[in-house]
Amino acid sequence: MGDRETSNHSEATDFILVGFRVRLELHILLFLLFLLVYAMVLLGNVGMMAIIMTDPHLNTPMYFFLGNLSFIDLFYSSVIAPKAMINFWSESKSISFAGCVTQLFLFALFIVTEAFLLAAMAYDRFIAICNPLLYSVQMSTRLCSQLVAGSYFCGCISSVLLTSVTFTLSFCASRAIDHFYCDYRPLQRISCSDLYILKIVSFFLCSIIILPTIIVIIVSYMYIVSTVLKIRSTEGRKKAFSTCSSHLGVVSVLYGAVIFMYVIPDRFPELSKVASLCYTLVTPMLNPLIYSLRNKDVKEALRKILEKKIFL
C-alpha cells in the first residue's frame, strides 16, 4: 500500500489549473480585467515605494510600514496574476509540481506576513494617537525593523509548515485543481490521502495568525476611539480618524475575504475564487489608492515629484 501511494504521489508531476468555469468568450474579458488590475497593482505599489524612498519627510515609522506593505502586495500579486493570465490563453492550463509548490509557498509567505504587518501598523497608530509625546521614543527604528522582520519570520514559518504538509499528500484522485492558483484547499479536494494532519495544521495556523492579529487590531482601535472621543476640537477628531480610516479599510477587505476563504466551510468553490480575487488582486490594487488619496503627506510628496519632473 505504501508503494502504491508513493507511486501515485510521484506521478503527479504537474497539475491543471481549472480557473473560472465560464464560457470561452468571457476568457478574453477576464484576461483584460486581470491585466488592467495587475497593471494598476504594479503602478500603484512601485509608485508608493518610490515616493516613500525619495521623500525625506516620509522617513517615519508609519511610512516604513507602508513601504513594506506595498512591497508585499506587489510580490504576492505577482506570484498569482501572471500565471493566471497565461492560462486564459493556454489550452493545457498546466503548472508543474515544482511551480505549484513554489506558488503556494510564496503566496502563504506574503499573505501571512501582511496579516502581521497590518497588526503592527495598528499598534503604530495606537502609539501615535494615544501616546503622541512618546511616539518617537517607543516606535524607534530598531523596534520597527524588529516588527517587520518578525512579520516575515512568522510568514516564513507558517508557509514552510503549510506547504510541507500539503505536498506530502498523494494526489491520485485528479490532477485538476479547481482554482486559478495553487492553494491548499483546492489541493486537498483532489487528494486521496488522509487529511486529518493537514486540517489540524491549517486550523492551528489560522488560530495563531488570524486570532492574535485581529485581537491586536481590535484592542488598538478600542483605545484609539476612546482617546479620539476625548479630543474636544472637531478638527482634531477628524485628523485623528483620517489617519486610521485608511488602515481600517484595508484590514476590512483583507480579513473579510480571508475569513470567508479559510474559516467558513469550503462548500462554494466559485465563490471562493471570487473571494480569492479580493486579497490576491483587489486589495493590492486598492492599498496604494486608499493610502495616497486619503493622505496629505503622500499627496504632497507626489505633487513635488511631478512638479520637479515638469520643471526638468
TrEMBL record:
Source organism, top-level taxon: Eukaryota
Keywords of the record: Cell membrane, G-protein coupled receptor, Membrane, Olfaction, Receptor, Sensory transduction, Transducer, Transmembrane, Transmembrane helix
Transmembrane stretches, start-end: 28-51, 63-82, 94-112, 118-137, 149-177, 197-224, 245-265, 271-293
Membrane topology summary: Multi-pass membrane protein
GO (cellular component) term, any one: plasma membrane
Compartments in which it is found: Cell membrane
Residue ranges occupied by any G-protein coupled receptors family 1 profile domain in the UniProt entry: 44-291
Molecular function via GO: G protein-coupled receptor activity; odorant binding; olfactory receptor activity
Main location: membrane
Keyword Ubl conjugation included in the entry's annotation: no
Family according to the record: Belongs to the G-protein coupled receptor 1 family.
Role description: Putative odorant or sperm cell receptor.
Designated name of the protein: Olfactory receptor
Organism name: Equus caballus
Upper taxonomic lineage: Eukaryota, Metazoa, Chordata, Craniata, Vertebrata
